[in-house]
Amino acid sequence: MDELHQRFITELKERTLIGLPDAMDEIVRELSLPFSDFSFDPSIGVGRYNTEALSLTMLRFDQLFANFDRLLAETTGKPLQQHNVNIGDQKWYREIYRGFKRTVRISEDVLVDVYEHKKNLIELFYCGRYSAMLESVVERYSVR
């Protein structure tokens, strides 16, 4: 498990962890969009950004699965039926993953760096909660 922890932490530090770059970062960079123009309505769990050439719908990941059918149906304008097929708790590695999450410890400076790098997204989707979220993750995962 120690080797897995070290690899994860190294990839966080070097920003090479798969999934760390956000699609939002890519969209903003590629289309030269002003991030300050994006908005998110937490009451409905959806953000929208529209121009003549682009209609972008943003969904908060932590709310996506609880409201999956409704959010995607509203976004696409079509009724959808969910098929759960890629469930982590049904994978062969589920106990390794649970153990990893339970035991991983990351230095505070790495956690702060990761959160600082994502600050614009955190502020967009969790308005005013950046400091509390950072404090919570430091409390949970930092080396003590």
Distance separating the two termini: 18 Å
Radius of gyration: 18 Å
Number of strands: 2
The helix/strand series, from N terminus to C terminus, equals: HHEEHHHHHH
Shape: globular
Give an account of the 3D structure.
The chain has 144 residues and is mostly helical. The chain has one domain (2-141). Helix content is 51%, strand content 7%. Strands 1-2 form a two-stranded antiparallel ribbon. A hairpin with a 4-residue loop joins strand 1 and strand 2. It is globular, with a radius of gyration of 18 Å.
What are the salient characteristics of this protein?
globular; single chain; two-stranded antiparallel ribbon; mainly alpha; 144 residues; 51% helix
What is the compact description of this entry?
The protein is mainly α and 144 residues long. It has helices spanning 2-14, 23-31, 61-64, 68-76, 94-103, 108-117, 119-125, 130-141, and strands spanning 46-50, 55-59.
Strands, helices and their partners?
Layout: H1 2-14, H2 23-31, E1 46-50, E2 55-59, H3 61-64, H4 68-76, H5 94-103, H6 108-117, H7 119-125, H8 130-141
Antiparallel strand pairs: 1-2
Helix pairs in contact: 6-8
